[in-house]
Amino acid sequence: MSYIHRSLERKFLKMSSAFKVVMVTGARQVGKSTMLQYLAQDSGRTYVSLDDADIRDLAESDPKLFFQMYQPPILIDEVQKAPALFEQIKILCDKSDERGRFWLTGSQSKKLMKQAGDSLAGRIGILKLFSLSAKELAGRSDDTPEDYTLSSLLLRSQNNPENNIQDVYTRIWEGGMPDMISMDAELRREYWNSYIDTYLMRDAVDDNGIQDTERFRKLLRACAAFTGELINYNDLGSAAGVSGATAKEWVRILQSMGIVFLLEPYFNNELKRMIKTPKLYFCDTGLCAFLSSWTSRDVLMNGAASGHFLENYVVSEMLRNAYYGEKKVNLNFYRDTNQKEIDLIVEMDGQLHPFEIKRAASPDKKVIKTFSLLGKSGKDIGAGGIICMAEKPFPIDEMNSLIPVNLL
Description:
Elements: H1 9-16, E1 21-26, H2 32-40, E2 46-49, H3 53-61, H4 63-69, E3 74-77, H5 85-94, E4 102-107, H6 110-120, E5 124-128, H7 134-137, H8 150-157, H9 165-174, H10 185-206, H11 213-225, H12 233-240, H13 244-256, E6 260-263, E7 279-282, H14 285-291, H15 297-301, H16 306-324, E8 329-335, E9 341-348, E10 351-357, E11 380-381, E12 384-388, E13 394-395, E14 400-404
Helix pairs in contact: 3-4, 5-6, 9-14, 11-12, 11-13, 11-14, 12-13
């Protein structure tokens, strides 16, 4: 299989020219090692993987000798397996002003972030990689939208096929794990079973001290059932047979593993009567679909949860755009105590860009009425609209458009 370019490459190379150490974290199997090995080819950079038990033992027992044998510039894979290396990396950083000497990958965990931050403060840049986005899979890794005006959307649509619900739900059901490209349904099922048993449950035990893996697995499935909804820890706990407090702690662990993320509600002092409960989403919709037992794209597309999955997909694609792009971007949603809601707010360049997410090709344009609620925020309101199954961008009013899902 040929290499698929990643949107994070640009930011990674930029940080490598500014920091002595750059580390890429993320959930298991999202392609961290593949990306860095691709960027390191033909550069003479030493590559070493700590998956090798002998190399790992050397790294832990004698970090100084390790770096005599494997000299910088170096790419160290799975660095979380030998935390003793961080102190030696710090010493070597302080002996040289060379940037980008150390490229590291590590499976996302709270422990790894603390170890790296404590030892290498001021010397390290840390980036996160997600599973493949739709535009990476389509060969448009450098196409990060930062403008939602109609003119920009029309320009983008010239380089894209028409929006198609079957294509969108294929992406949602399959997810973006690189190893799963071209797998059939049976192999996908086995892949996810193995992924959960081999990686998620093992990391839950080894890195996070969870003993009751059966209930943790039930909580994971409960999270999938509640995707796109306001999080209720008591309901999650009840589904898993644990307390609400335990459910909250386990969700925090799933966040630290890069499996789920919580979208926080928009809040500022000008807006009153706002709720403060976040919404739960999965970083990869393919895993969520597997955990929810949706056995095919068509069953998911026509099922009762299809709207929630589309919302999860849109928010996760926007999360990737926000993270990989050049600008500082905040993602939130709006909900007040009167049940008025805006599915997604993208805050960028001092403006709020509001979006509704609808499965319809011709959604009711009145849903954008809630956008006016942001007028009391004291912020400028930028271009937004309804992200939907429309085939082409179409104006709703001077600020808002129908936005095809495949233009994200």
